[in-house]
Amino acid sequence: MDSKNINALLEKYWNCETSLEEEQQLKAYFRGKEIPEQLKETAVLFQYFDEHKKKNLNDSGFDQEVLSRVKSPKQGKVTRLMYNTMRIAAGIAVLVIATVLVRNEIRKTNPVAVEDTYDDPKLAFEETKKALMMISKSFGTAQDKAKKINMFNEAQKSVQKDDEDTKAKL
Amino acid sequence: MNLEAFQNRVLPAKNKLFRFALRFLGNEEEAKDVVQEVFIRVWNGREQMNEVENWEAWCMRITRNLSLDRIRSINRKQTQPIEASFDVKLETLTPHESTEAHESMQKITQLIAALPEKQRQVIHLRDVEGYSYNEICDILEIDMNQVKVNLFRARNAVREKLMKINAYGL
C-alpha cells in the first residue's frame, strides 16, 4: 500500500469512518518496517493497540481453578440451605399470623354459636336433665327462703290488724 | 450448556475479558479475580445464555459491571479522593514490558490512560479488540451515537497529542 492510500485511510480512521477491515489494514501496514518519518508516532499508536491485544492472562492454573469452582459450588451451600429454611419459615409465620387475625375478625363480627359438645343423644339428655335438676333444686331452696320472708309479711299484717282493733276500741 | 461447551467456547474468551477488566482496574490480580467471577456468573446463568444473542458481548458486559462494582468498593474501602483512584488505572507495566517499551510507547500509554473513562473503554473495544459498533453498544449499554461520539473524541484527542509530539517533540 502506498503512502497516499495510507494517508487517505488514516484520514478516514480519524473521522471514524473506517470499517473493521480497513482498520485491520492500517494495523497490518504499521506492523511493517518501512514507515515514513511523519507517520512514526502514528505507527506507535497502532503498535500500542497490537501490543495490548497480546496481553494475556498468564496463569496456567486459571482454567482449572474456574472449572473446579464451577463444578463444586460448595461454599454457599450452607447459606443457601439457611436461606431456603428461613424463606419457608417466614412463609409459615405469615400464614399463621394471617389465620389468627382473620379468625379474630370473624369472631368479633358473628359471636360464637353454641357448639355441640355431645355426640351421644342419651348422654346429652342426661346432662341436660342434670342441669335442669340443678336449677330446680336451687329454685326449691329459693322458695323455702321466700316462704320465710312471707312469714314476716303475715306477722306484719296481723300486727297492723291488732293496732287497728285497739284504735277502734278507744 | 454443558461443562465441555463452557470449557471450549466460553473459557477461551478469558484474555479479552482480562484485558477489558485490566483497562478498568489497572491491577492484574484484581482483573483476574473479576474474570473468574464473570465465568462463575456465566456458568450459573447458563440457562439464559441460549437467549443471549452474542454471548461474548454478554460476558464483556458482565466484566464491565463487575469491574465498576469493584472500583466502587475499592474507593469505599479506602475512602481515597477520586483523583487518587484514577492513578490506579494507569497501566502497570511488567519489568519485561518496560524495558521493551520505548519512550513513545510510554507516551501513548499515558495518553490513552489520560482519556475520560468512556472514551478509553470505547477505543479499547474498537481499536484493541476490534469489536463492531453494534457489539460495543451491547457491551457498554449505550446507544450507537454515544459510541461514535466517544470514539471520535478519543481518536481526535489522540491525534491532537500525536501532532503535538510530531511538531514539538513533546
Quick overview of this protein structure:
The complex is a heterodimer of chains A (170) and B (170). Chain A has 170 residues and is mainly alpha-helical. Helices cover 77% and strands 0% of the residues of chain A.
Oligomer: heterodimer
Could you give the distance between the termini of chain A?
Answer: 165 Å
Radius of gyration of chain B, taken over Cα atoms and rounded to an integer in Å: 17 Å
Considering DSSP H and I runs of 4 or more, what fraction of the residues of chain B is helical?
over 70%
The ordered string of helix (H) and strand (E) elements of chain A is HHHHHH
Summarize the largest interface: chains and residue counts. Answer: A-B, 32 and 40 residues
Please state the overall shape of chain A, judged from the principal axes of the Cα atoms: rod-shaped
What is the strand content of chain B?
under 5%
Tally the beta strands of chain A. Answer: 0
- Class based on secondary structure composition and strand pairing of chain A: mainly alpha
Approximate strand percentage of chain A: under 5%
Weakly predicted, low-confidence segments of chain B: none
Could you say what the CATH topology of the largest domain in chain B is called?
A: Rna Polymerase Sigma Factor, Chain: A
* SSE pattern of chain B: HHHHHHHHHH
Structural class of chain B: mainly alpha
How does this model look, in words?
The complex is a heterodimer of chains A (170) and B (170). Among the domains of chain A are: 3-55, no CATH class; 121-170. In chain A, 77% of the residues lie in helices and 0% in strands. Chain A has six helices and no strands. In chain A, helix 2 packs across helix 3. Chain B is 77% helix and 0% strand. Chain B has two domains: 1-92, Rna Polymerase Sigma Factor, Chain: A (Orthogonal Bundle); 100-170, Orthogonal Bundle (Arc Repressor Mutant, subunit A). Chain B starts with a helix and ends with a helix. Classes of the chains: A mainly alpha (170), B mainly alpha (170). The A-B interface holds A 13-16, 20, 23-24, 38, 40-42, 44-45, 47-49, 51-53, 55-57, 59, 62-63, 65-67, 69-71, 73 and B 3, 6-7, 11, 14-15, 18-19, 22, 31-32, 35-36, 39-40, 43-44, 104-105, 107-109, 112, 124, 126-130, 132, 148, 151-152, 155-156, 158-159, 162, 165-166.
